[in-house]
Each structure stands twice: as C-alpha cells, then as structure tokens.
Automatic annotation (TrEMBL):
The lineage of its organism: Bacteria, Pseudomonadati, Aquificota, Aquificia, Aquificales. It comes from the Bacteria. Gene3D superfamilies: Cytochrome c oxidase-like, subunit I domain. It comes from Hydrogenobacter thermophilus (strain DSM 6534 / IAM 12695 / TK-6). The chain crosses the membrane at residues 7-28, 48-67, 79-98, 104-126. Keywords: Membrane, Transmembrane, Transmembrane helix. This is Uncharacterized protein. InterPro entries: Cyt_c_oxase-like_su1_sf.
Amino acid sequence: MNSLTKVNLLLSFLYLLLGSLLGLMLGYKQTASSLFSMGGSPTLAHAHLQLVGFVTQMIVGVTYHIVPMLSRGKINSFKLGYLHTALLNAGLLIQVWGFLTDRILFKSFGSLLLFASIVMYLFNILKSMKWR
Ligand code: HEM
Ligand code: HEM
C-alpha cells in the first residue's frame, strides 16, 4: 500500500470515530442541547465529519491504490496528493467549527479550502489514469 493511501485511510478512520462521537452526543438530550447552545448546526458538523472526513477521504485513499493498479500507471504527484490531503483536513475542521458556531467566516473559508482540495484531487487522479 502506498503512503498516500495509508495516510488517507488512517485519517478517515479518525473522522469515523470523531463523527460518530458527535452523532452519539446528538442522540442524548443533555449533550445535544449543549452542542446546540454553541449557536450553529451540530447536525451539519456531524454529516460533514462522516461524509467528507470518513467517506470521501476513504474513497480518495482507495482510488490512489486502485487507479494506478488498474491502469498500470503511477500516481501523478505525491506532493500534490499530500497538499490536497492537508487542505481537505484543514478545510473540513475549519468548516465544521463554522457549522458548530454559525460563524460565516469559518464556514466560507473552510468551504473554499475544501473545494480547492477537491479540484486538486480530481486533477491528480485524472492525471494518474492511462486513457488507453
Ligand atoms: C455511532 C454512529 C452514529 C451516530 C450515533 C449517529 C447519530 C446521528 C443523529 C442522532 C443524527 C440526527 C441529528 C439531528 O437531526 O439533530 C444523525 C444525522 C446524520 N448522520 Fe449520523 N450517526 C452515526 C453515524 C453516521 C455515519 C457513519 C454517517 C455517514 C457515513 C452518518 C451520517 C449522518 C447524516 C448525513 C445525518 C444528517 C441527516 C439529515 O440531514 O437529517 N451518521 N446522526
Ligand atoms: C466543498 C465541499 C462542500 C461544501 C462547501 C459543502 C457545504 C455544505 C453546506 C453549506 C451545507 C448546508 C446546506 C444547508 O444550509 O442546509 C451542506 C449540507 C450537506 N452536505 Fe455538504 N458540502 C461539501 C461537500 C459535501 C460532500 C463531499 C458530501 C457528501 C459526500 C456532503 C454532504 C452533505 C449533506 C448530506 C448535507 C445535508 C446535511 C443535513 O441537512 O443535515 N457535502 N453542505
């Protein structure tokens, strides 16, 4: 398994744990009301920790393993791979803090970083495919 896949998988497991903990807290009256008292939407925070942090990042990691294998090529750029992984994680945590506290600056800046990381990932994975 290459290091980019490994890092993305390990991070995705971490978000599954973190997102599920938040989900659990959403299920109990007392913990939920303290989360809602932060002023934002803990449900959106939970949804993105799970769907971006766990599911999307898991898919990113798996594609960096199977795409080069299936097309008998190699990963276009590990550097770009690490860069978009760092951006996704920074962006997600900033966005999630924005969702929890309803702070527009955190929401929009985090979302921009996330979007940039998605574009970089798409570029890198498409360049890693051999179209023959
Ligand atoms: C221990 C694991 C989990 C627990 C305890 C949990 C709990 C919850 C709770 C209580 C809500 C409702 C929040 C509300 O409406 O205020 C919720 C919503 C949600 N959960 Fe989870 N969850 C878990 C795992 C997951 C996983 C693994 C995913 C996705 C991969 C996920 C995705 C979502 C989404 C997308 C919503 C929002 C649904 C909507 O918009 O109504 N959850 N979860
Ligand atoms: C650049 C990346 C992304 C941005 C900026 C973003 C932003 C948002 C925003 C602002 C909302 C709230 C909409 C509202 O006010 O109701 C939302 C909801 C949602 N997003 Fe994302 N999102 C991103 C990526 C994703 C991805 C990759 C997934 C799934 C794989 C996802 C799944 C969802 C779901 C399920 C909801 C509804 C949750 C609920 O209503 O509880 N998002 N997103």
